Amino acid sequence: MKYDFIIIGSGIIGLTLAYKLKKTKSNAKILILEKEYNSIQHGSGRNSGVIHSGIYYDPGSLRATLGMQGGIELKEYIKTKKLWIDECGKILIPISIHSNDNTENLYQRGIQNGVMVKKLSHKEIQQLEPNVNIQYDTGLLIPFTSVADPKEVSNSLINDLKDLGVQIIYNQEVKKITDEGKTVSTDQNNYFCDHSFNCSGLQSDVVAKNAGLEFRYSFLPFKGKYWKITNSNFKLKHLIYPIPDLRYPFLGLHTSHKKDGSFYIGPSSTPVLGRELYNSECNFKLNEAISLALSFGLKILKNENKLRSLAIQEAKLITKNGFFNEVKKLINNVSKENLKPSLEKVGIRSQIFDPQSKTLVNDFVVINQKHSTHVLNAISPAWTASFAFADHLIKLAKI
Ligand SMILES: Cc1cc2nc3c(=O)[nH]c(=O)nc-3n(C[C@H](O)[C@H](O)[C@H](O)COP(=O)(O)OP(=O)(O)OC[C@H]3O[C@@H](n4cnc5c(N)ncnc54)[C@H](O)[C@@H]3O)c2cc1C
Description:
binds flavin-adenine dinucleotide, eight-stranded mixed beta sheet, FAD/NAD(P)-binding domain, alpha+beta, 25% strand, five-stranded antiparallel beta sheet
């Protein structure tokens, strides 16, 4: 059978793309090929579940435009489907002199991006969240930011797609794409289509290379580990984030919470020697580890994009003491004994590096060809942006 569209990867980008393709062309025959046994083994099942406002990103960038539109659509979808959402809002506070200096920049960026953001005084922060560690006399409030359950969203989309006649086949790892994108091959089968979409997250660059694509980017995975806050009486009304260093695509350790009322703090941004190396027991590949160690090592030695400073900062988070010292900069009602590493809540970012500018790529990257489209660098806030990201891909592919 020939399909109109084949989507590689059933993370949030693949699922929302199939959903929007069906809305655009209701009779389209769509197949999703997924290498895992479900859709939530990687980024889309391992993130903070935060629906971002779009404040952080360069005005006009894909992260800003798709992030903002996508956030509105994701909220609408969640509410229509009656899924869990906590529209709690977020408070950002400076946690160092450098971060304090960035507060005004971030505020202005938010205004430029059209985000509703309010400056807070010491007293206002204290009134809103008495347990925030206020070191500087300022903070920002973003009412739009919310938390939802990423697994619930993926499962709901899968049910919708079944109803819409989209076929998802699990345990099918795409090994090769030929015929300009029109033949997609796994170990078990060849599948044929008019247009294929590579939405394979952490493997997107590998899949793109297996489609014969040439590009200058290299892949640099960063692991995000969370710690669970175990005090039974711990409570925050808002998400609490630091004012980040806008040179990096990372937001810094922040709080997050789940539907069951459990609270977490994370994620770290530690270089990791495996694109799916969530813990040391799984998915260790020696060749991959050597090549990533060399790649990270050289960049850290040369301090490209200040990666050495980042590595030093992140190294502190590996020990419980180091992690706790960072947590204390943000909130003051947690003791070291009440922090427990979360084994299930560990994610790895699909981050690419640009050797030309010698920087971590700070926006989504899409390479579009006549019969195939490749999504590279679907970093945060791609979960928030996904519905709008899907429209963007459909437009690029001229469907
Ligand atoms: C720690 C962390 C926290 C984050 N927090 C947030 C947040 O709060 N808010 C937000 O908006 N974003 C957040 N993000 C980002 C967000 O999770 C990702 O941007 C998003 O999930 C990317 O979705 P995806 O579909 O591209 O990738 P994935 O979810 O990784 O999906 C890709 C799929 O492709 C499959 N695949 C790979 N290779 C193949 C192959 N060869 N053949 C077939 N299938 C294949 C994989 O198995 C996987 O299921 C976070 C990310 C991390 C790591």
